[in-house]
Write a structure and sequence with these properties.
Helix content: over 70%
Distance between the termini: 71 Å
Structural class: mainly alpha
Number of strands: 0
Shape: flat
Number of helices: 7
Number of domains: 1
Order of helices and strands: HHHHHHH
Strand content: under 5%
Largest sheet: none
Length: 225
């Protein structure tokens, strides 16, 4: 009887182990579906809020579409850009994943509200001149196309695990949509040259500042003794 009970318990343990492994595999497989479902709910909710707030205006459809695309872009920014910004701190164990997400949510929102006006103005009017479009409706739909194309590209890059810049994607989308809608003459090329130059200067300057900061820490703090 004791041998039988022992074999029975061993068999039961193996079966329970298989069930546990199956549950873990199912949970891992369902994780992307859960993320997709939450994302769709967020996009639909953004559209519904926009409809509730601006449903009485003449451009309700445009506003709802813009809100949905903006929510889609915001999700991609969180999945790619925030990961780029917070990845080094999390990788160095200076921050937990939850802490990094909380810091990013608070301070990226604060930065956009407090100091994002000039960048918004450049994206909206500095790259493509609105007066170059035949009608205001063409300009609106061109901007929506730029937003959708940028969000789609960042989404694809996130899916393949490639860190990309949302700024580069949006600027390229706006320029491409403007060229498609009104030709190459619609692009403010001096502004584009400055933006492109900043893309080259920024990583070099960031590397120099990081090297100087690391040298300061080592010489003045770590090796002070």
């Amino acid at each position: 009887n004791n041998d039988y009970e022992q074999r029975h318990l061993e068999t039961l343990d193996r079966d329970l182990g298989r069930f546990s492994a199956l549950e873990r595999a199912t949970s891992y497989a369902n994780r992307p579906l859960m993320g997709l479902g939450v994302s769709l709910v967020f996009i639909v909710l953004a559209g519904l809020i926009a409809f509730y707030l601006f449903g009485n205006t003449g451009n309700t459809v445009v506003v709802v579409i813009a809100a949905g695309l903006g929510a889609y872009m915001a999700l991609n920014i969180g999945a790619n850009d925030v990961a780029n910004n917070m990845g080094p701190a999390v990788g160095a164990n200076a921050l937990t994943m939850g802490g990094a997400i909380a810091i990013a949510a608070i301070f990226e929102s604060a930065g956009a509200l407090l100091a994002g006006g000039d960048v918004v103005s450049t994206i909206a009017k500095g790259i493509i001149a609105p007066e170059s479009m035949q009608t205001a409706a063409i300009f609106i739909w061109a901007m929506l196309a730029a937003l959708f194309s940028a969000a789609l590209w960042v989404n694809l890059a996130t899916w393949i695990g490639a860190p990309v810049s949302t700024t580069h994607s949006v600027v390229g989308g706006v320029m491409g949509a403007g060229i498609a809608a009104a030709g190459f003459a619609a692009v403010n090329w001096p502004t584009m040259y400055k933006i492109a130059a900043s893309w080259v200067i920024s990583p070099i300057l960031g590397g120099v500042v990081a090297a100087l900061f690391l040298w300061f820490i080592k010489s003045c703090i770590v090796y002070q003794d």
